[in-house]
Amino acid sequence: MSEARETVDNACNAVYDALRYLGDASYAILPPNVAHELGDFKKKFLSNVCSLIEKDIEWIDARVAGGDRLREEWKQSCDREQSEPAGDPVS
Description:
The chain is built from 2 helices and no strands. The protein is an all-alpha fold. The longest helix has 52 residues, at 32-83. It is elongated. The protein starts with a helix and ends in an 8-residue tail after the last helix.
């Protein structure tokens, strides 16, 4: 079993090495200043995407909490209506 696992690990490492080489080559063909500026641009872009995702997660958490609060308010309102005695019938 460990031999099969070793073979899979070797294959994964070979694929990883090939992808890393292609990534390195894609920056190596650019002039150094362009490669660094492109890298900085990509990092800033991904940082902004991460910030956007974090804000979306915060928004979802707030909506779920708001839903819990609203559900509790509805339940209390329902309980009050059921506990109030029915009005005197009009004669």
